[in-house]
Amino acid sequence: xxxxxxxxxxxxxxxxxxxxxxxxxxxxxxxxxFASLGYRLVDLQVLRHQDLGAKAQQKTPKGSSSWNHAGATxxxxxxxxxxxxxx
Length: 87
Description:
Helix content is 61%, strand content 0%. The protein contains 2 helices and no strands.
């Protein structure tokens, strides 16, 4: 700022003030976005856990088998699950 008039120096300070204002606005916007996402996460996983779990149990098919029926040539299952003790 050595070779500039005081008026020219003020223009650059206005630019910095505008940048800081934009930075503050963007920071505020991101903080609000993360806070709203956090609220939604707590709402779904903590507050509504029992209700949504009951709905999921109702929508889960009952009595489904692990047999492969689509195009199967034999009645043996394609994969089996063994308890840890047998391995």
